[in-house]
Amino acid sequence: MVVGEFFPEHFRINLQHKSQILAEEPFLYSFYGSTETTTLGAESLPSICMRKVLAQNPLFAESLGFYESIPALFHFSSQDTFIEVKEEGILVTKWQSTPLFRYFLGDKVNLYAWRDLKQEFLKVAVDYDISEKLLSIIKNSSDYLPDILALEGRSDKCLILGGVNIYQDSLNTIIRSQELEDILTGIYYAKIIYHENGQQALKLALETKKTINVQREKDLYTFLIRNLCKIQTDLREDWNIIYNDWENDDLNNKILSLQFYLYPKLSQELFNKNKHQSILT
After folding, report:
1. I need a surface site. Which of 26, 61, 154, 262 has the fewest CB within 10 A?
2. What pLDDT, on a 0 to 100 scale, did the predictor assign at position 114?
């Protein structure tokens, strides 16, 4: 399978579940790179196991500094490349010609020394209930594997809600989660709107597999806001201090504004476009 986008953990989990492969089995190796840079990194058995453990234990992931999403962990494998991590994304310089070519990929990437990341992982792991099979693979891995490019998704796909960056990868993780796959198709659009009272809100246009009644809409709203606050820690703080006091039974005046379209309404719109962009600015 070849894709041109970030391969998020929820997609891997759903694919593994549908393929009837046990959850703790290492699954789906992938590579990281671009047309301009060619391959920059590749997953290994230990890095896949580490990623799976982080996905299964969100609090463990947060203790290691992964707050917004579970990254794909690639071993850096391009010897003719210089990597710079900037706030707006990764900058790649290829040592292939004069003048040098530099590529801004727009990906959210951090660099970690494999040995340090492994040691910190094993140090914190003692406080959590972790699969012995996955843990043993990580423990027995070499300390001298190439260092890690931790890819969390795109840096240029976000909306600003009350000063908090809401990333497309965070929305993907929630809307395309296994818990919602019987209700939603996973196709959606998101944008910032303003209520009549001037209150800012995140509008989500969601494609559904079935008609959504009032009670299901309330349950879906609760699921979405709880999980968004869980992934986006800045939003969680604002929710506890500000937004929670604004919430009431009026579904038309909340921090999330939900709009539903029965399949295949949004899918047909997607089919007519060259590239799907869920974030609308």
Report:
1. 262
2. 96
Q: How many CA within 13 A on the CB side of residue 279?
A: 17
Q: Which of 130-134, 153-157, 198-202, 221-225 has the lowest mean pLDDT?
A: 153-157
pLDDT tens digit string along 164-210? 878 887 888 899 888 998 999 999 999 988 877 777 889 999 999 99
Q: What's at 205, amino acid-wise?
A: A
> What is the residue extent of each domain of the chain?
9-153, 158-271
Find where tokens 């914190």 sit: 124
Environment class of 145 (CB within 10 Å of its CB; exposed 0-12, middle 13-18, buried 19+) = middle
The C-alpha angle 165, 191, 258, rounded to 5 degrees, equals: 110
Local structure of 205: helix, strand or coil:
strand
Task: Please calculate the CA angle 201-71-40 and round it to the nearest 5 degrees.
Answer: 125
**How far apart (Å, rounded) are the C-alpha atoms in residues 55 and 148?**
17
Residues in the chain: 281
Domain 158-271, CATH number (from 3.40.640.10, 3.40.50.1000, 3.30.300.30, 3.40.50.12710): 3.30.300.30
Instruction: Read off φ and ψ for residue 219, nearest 5 degrees.
Output: -65, -40
Q: What is the mean pLDDT of residues 56-82?
A: 84
The answer, yes or no, to whether residue 1 has pLDDT greater than 50, is: no
d(CA 269, CA 70): 30
Residue type, 155: S
